[in-house]
What does this fold into?
Amino acid sequence: QKEVEQNSGPLSVPEGAIASLNCTYSDRGSQSFFWYRQYSGKSPELIMFIYSNGDKEDGRFTAQLNKASQYVSLLIRDSQPSDSATYLCAVNRAAGNKLTFGGGTRVLVKP
Amino acid sequence: GAGVSQSPRYKVAKRGQDVALRCDPISGHVSLFWYQQALGQGPEFLTYFQNEAQLDKSGLPSDRFFAERPEGSVSTLKIQRTQQEDSAVYLCASSRGATGGGFQETQYFGPGTRLLVL
It folds into this structure.
């Protein structure tokens, strides 16, 4: 079992719909959780991070964390074709430590 | 600089050749990380520096891989006697600090070096 699991996709959503991405992790010592977006041939760029159980909203993005279930998700509201990319979930145990990434979920937003 | 920079952006090496990949972190960032990303996979951790100290090298796949950051700024990842399985994108990331948590631990990635070993 990989430490961080994501459905590889592709997740196909119509423009304007909500895209829902899921990520599970195995290490209960994980403290910080990150969502990165990666366009083809480009490097990962941070979308948002979350540390506490519950929801965190930033514009069209909402991250949800449930440490008891070892589950973190990302919702993209009003999906746009420019949101088409691979979304990487990453976790780390403590400040300054390495990030452990999932394999990424490829999202396709169709006009 | 404004962001993390890496050079070269592309490198083609013959099997058995040595290569050196350079990373310039964001100015003032204490922590520096190297990751390896194979095609279609998420990045995998290689090694971590806090200033000039290499605190974690558990992800280096073999003793052919060596990294340094002698003055606590620029870092070099060296791969000796390259093999075809070394073909990947090598990503460098930096973060503000190792303490305090929160925004300071957010890692910002450079554009990567795409290595192809023939």
